[in-house]
Amino acid sequence: MREHDNMWPPNLKCLVMLLMLMILNVSGAFVGINVGTDISNVPSAVDIVSILKEKKIQHIRLLNSDHQMLTALANTGIEVMVGVPNDQLLRVGQSRPTAADWINKNVAAYIPATNITYIAVGNEVLTTIPNAALVLVPALQFLQSALLAANLNTQVKISSPHSTDMISKPFPPSTATFNSTWSSIMLQYLQFLKNTGSSFMLNAQPYYDYVRGQGIFPLEYALFRSLNPDSQISDPNTNLFYTNMFDAMVDATYNSMQAMNFTDIPVMVTASGWPWHGAQNEQAANVDNALAYNTNLIRHVLNNSGTPSQPNNQVSTYIFELFNEDLRAGLVSDKNWGIMFPNATTVYTLTFEDMGTTSADSAVLRGTFCVANSSAPPSALKQSLDWACGPGSANCSAIQPGQPCYKSDDIVAVASYAFNDYYHRTQASGGTCNFNSTAMVTSTDPSHGSCIFAGSTGSNGSSGGEASGSISPDNFATQTQLCWLTHLVATLLPILVFL
Ligand SMILES: *[C@@H]1O[C@H](CO)[C@@H](O)[C@H](O)[C@H]1NC(C)=O
Ligand SMILES: *[C@@H]1O[C@H](CO)[C@@H](O)[C@H](O)[C@H]1NC(C)=O
Ligand SMILES: *[C@@H]1O[C@H](CO)[C@@H](O)[C@H](O)[C@H]1NC(C)=O
Ligand SMILES: *[C@@H]1O[C@H](CO)[C@@H](O)[C@H](O)[C@H]1NC(C)=O
Ligand SMILES: *[C@@H]1O[C@H](CO)[C@@H](O)[C@H](O)[C@H]1NC(C)=O
Ligand SMILES: *[C@@H]1O[C@H](CO)[C@@H](O)[C@H](O)[C@H]1NC(C)=O
Ligand SMILES: *[C@@H]1O[C@H](CO)[C@@H](O)[C@H](O)[C@H]1NC(C)=O
Ligand SMILES: *[C@@H]1O[C@H](CO)[C@@H](O)[C@H](O)[C@H]1NC(C)=O
Ligand SMILES: *[C@@H]1O[C@H](CO)[C@@H](O)[C@H](O)[C@H]1NC(C)=O
């Protein structure tokens, strides 16, 4: 009973704040995953669906409309994007009856049991099969008419994924424009999206730009790790700072649309990932980078922070991809973007920022701190720091420039904050204070001034990270965030949890 009494007021407060958030039109972005099957030993549809369920994946993008998959996905609650493959585009775009037939056989036949919500028509059509460019918009229109006839136009949205190569000069984002070769088709495409309330689908792959840039872009910038102000990039026209290439790509897309006078079409990222293995000359394709990229991308999307130019527009994103596809043409790296082998063995473990644990500091650790060993080489500390703030999912906000624990010239202090935050978040589930032997446990509280370390018992020191269940009544922003996170965990957000 007592627990009950204590629980209600915060919940009520949460409810009120969530309503306010809804009024403010803030909605959550989701993270889904691409499920390609260009694989010599394709797992059965039933096996694929059980992998999805086990990983609590709620949104998937199929590159086709495989009927066994659509059947296996029935009554799972998983939201499905189906695809019209490029080799079917000509037929669909040249014949209204063929398009109607496509909708009936591949979409209408499976709804409502299978929750199909998007159709991606072709993939990177203008940049990969330009000879089919003229049928792209007719295909969209024919498919839309067929959806309308089947009364499915509100349940299912139609669009077509584009490569960032469509943007001729992507940087700075404020002056980006689409390649003018395709202006008339882009104009019709954007008009279609506007008329139907659909999204611009973007395949955003910082990996390729990083590799092609040959050192122009820091790796940190590609991997969402721009702790260092020197590796952030500013847009000279807007003075907006870009801490990662992903945001710059999305903003370049918004601005390219704006240059054509379309301002209210949302961007959805239909493919983004990083290969974990490549040939000898593909050094950037490795497990560390793939893990860091995908972990940070997921956190970035679920944080609902939008982009620098559109902070209120969340960008839902489909990770590329679930399985390695050994039959894909191309380089060694092209076959190794998966987080799993087709035999269901995990290539690397993706840990999502477990929002449920942000307020779950272990009482056992009160008064115990994990700090950097000041005798460790600075380069090793830097490496461990990058890991803690990246894949380790430590909350490194407080060590950003301008924040209480930021010290530009003291890697030991900054790393200590990150190590300690990681340790307090993860100790209960097996996290250790090791960091490649650069860290150690101490009982001396490193907190100073308003820089409070998790686990601090200082008189004013409730460390944001501890004290589960008690929401400080003073800080609306923190409360809203906590409520929002709790709510996301509880209901709204399809969170992928890779255990
Ligand atoms: C399908 O997904 C949409 C969007 O999340 C949701 O509103 C709807 O309830 C889902 N339908 C079914 C049958 O699960
Ligand atoms: C624009 O697209 C055309 C046709 O694909 C291509 O030849 C040209 O190089 C592109 N221009 C730029 C600046 O990317
Ligand atoms: C966008 O609108 C402005 C002002 O109305 C106009 O001058 C310009 O030509 C338009 N651009 C395009 C691509 O339609
Ligand atoms: C999360 O979003 C907030 C603002 O909404 C931003 O200040 C913070 O830096 C973001 N964190 C990450 C890890 O992107
Ligand atoms: C799964 O496939 C990978 C790559 O082919 C292989 O290394 C691994 O041993 C396989 N695992 C099982 C359980 O068969
Ligand atoms: C700190 O690092 C130094 C040098 O690597 C090592 O000799 C020492 O044992 C470490 N101290 C602790 C407490 O781990
Ligand atoms: C991260 O830490 C900052 C304070 O340093 C806090 O305001 C914020 O709520 C924390 N974020 C999460 C997700 O715990
Ligand atoms: C751990 O240290 C070794 C050698 O000191 C280094 O090669 C390795 O990359 C480090 N690993 C991590 C995750 O920092
Ligand atoms: C904690 O106390 C110190 C010194 O009394 C003060 O400078 C700091 O701002 C306080 N921190 C918080 C979070 O209230």
From TrEMBL:
Signal peptide: 1-29
EC number: 3.2.1.39
Record keywords, A-Z: Disulfide bond, Glycosidase, Hydrolase, Plant defense, Signal
InterPro entries, per the entry: Glyco_hydro_17, Glyco_hydro_17_plant, X8
Organism superkingdom: Eukaryota
Start and end residues of each X8 domain: 368-453
Molecular-function annotations in GO: glucan endo-1,3-beta-D-glucosidase activity
Single GO BP term: defense response
Reaction(s) this enzyme catalyzes, per UniProt: Hydrolysis of (1->3)-beta-D-glucosidic linkages in (1->3)-beta-D-glucans
Entry annotated with the keyword Magnesium: no
Family note: Belongs to the glycosyl hydrolase 17 family.
Protein name from the UniProt record: glucan endo-1,3-beta-D-glucosidase
Lineage: Eukaryota, Viridiplantae, Streptophyta, Embryophyta, Tracheophyta
